[in-house]
């Protein structure tokens, strides 16, 4: 089972459009999940829910999903504001690092930052980095043309309970000065990452797509459908990632050329037993090829 979490209805709807055979499941506390299969990957079970905005509800519902489904992986899927001019609306950002930028200590004349940070699960990052070279991930996009497909970036993301819509505010300047490797900003991944860190036994990743430039133009880009465009991009990549994850007990269907093979040298096993007027038994746990049993003054056996 793969769990997909979103914060907004527009993000939820984009993922829901890529699912089939969906049924509703209500878990402890009344949280509703939609459980179904990936339309492009029949048989791959996923659970989908909306957390609402902010780190606290994201952390709470992440923990609830981990308890309810015991998933192989959990993905947070949604939109984000872009902090770099080279990002295009609709571009996908896989968060290699999530930085909670609001922690700190306020003094009379300065703010001393005390941030937290979490890295993406290595296994999911490795799988995700292969997807941009596979045109099949674009199947979830409205236009499957390669020329119109969004770019995919692997970069750090800043997370905090603030909607940033300025490049010149005090908050924007603090992020630029102290978290300058972050290329996008959003509100939920710090809570999501902390819940995963405390759980400690499941792979987790944040998949975001750029819906605005966090520069004062959010209302304009939102009115032009940028949120829907970005949510669709994030959903397409996240569901492709969910399909690429090998669940426990699942056969590896990747091309043979991509599978890791480990050469095994059976070596030589030597064993000597001395026996007088009795039986000698040998128990071999691993058969490494031809073997020979010998004993003094007796026939050779092979």
Question: How does the overall form come out from the CA principal axes?
Answer: globular
Low-confidence stretches: 257-270, 282-288
Strand order of the largest sheet: 5-11-10-6-12
What structural class should be given to the helix and strand makeup? Answer: alpha/beta
The CATH first-level class comes to Alpha Beta
Describe it.
This protein is an alpha/beta fold and 302 residues long. The protein has one domain: Nucleoside phosphorylase domain (Rossmann fold). The protein contains seven helices and twelve strands. It has a five-stranded mixed β-barrel, surrounded by five helices. A two-stranded antiparallel ribbon has the order 7-8. The chain is globular. The two termini are 49 Å apart. About 7% of the residues have low confidence.
């Amino acid at each position: 089972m793969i769990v997909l979490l979103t914060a907004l209805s527009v993000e939820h709807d984009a993922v829901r459009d890529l699912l089939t055979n969906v049924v509703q499941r209500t878990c402890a506390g009344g949280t509703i999940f939609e459980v179904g299969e990936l339309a492009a990957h029949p048989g791959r079970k996923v659970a989908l829910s909306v957390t609402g905005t902010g780190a606290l509800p994201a952390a709470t519902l992440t923990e609830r999903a981990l308890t309810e489904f015991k998933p192989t992986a959990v993905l947070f899927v949604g939109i984000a504001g872009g902090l770099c001019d080279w990002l295009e609306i609709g571009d996908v950002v896989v968060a290699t690092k999530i930085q909670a930028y609001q922690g700190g200590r306020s003094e009379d004349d300065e703010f001393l930052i005390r941030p937290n940070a979490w890295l993406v699960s290595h296994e999911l990052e490795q799988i995700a980095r292969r997807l941009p070279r596979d045109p099949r991930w674009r199947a979830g996009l409205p236009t499957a043309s390669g020329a119109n497909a969004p770019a995919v970036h692997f970069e750090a993301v800043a997370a905090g309970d603030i909607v940033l819509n300025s490049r010149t505010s005090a908050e924007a300047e603090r992020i630029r000065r102290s978290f300058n490797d972050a290329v996008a900003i959003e509100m939920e991944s710090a809570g999501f990452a902390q819940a995963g860190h405390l759980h400690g036994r499941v792979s987790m990743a944040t998949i975001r797509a750029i819906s605005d430039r966090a520069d004062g133009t959010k209302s304009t880009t939102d009115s032009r459908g940028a949120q829907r465009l970005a949510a669709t991009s994030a959903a397409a990549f996240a569901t492709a990632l969910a399909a690429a994850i090998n669940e426990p007990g699942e056969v590896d269907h990747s091309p043979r050329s991509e599978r890791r093979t480990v050469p095994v040298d059976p070596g030589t096993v030597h064993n000597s037993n001395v026996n007088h007027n009795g039986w000698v038994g040998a128990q071999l746990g691993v058969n490494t090829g031809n073997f020979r049993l010998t004993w003094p003054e007796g026939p050779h056996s092979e």
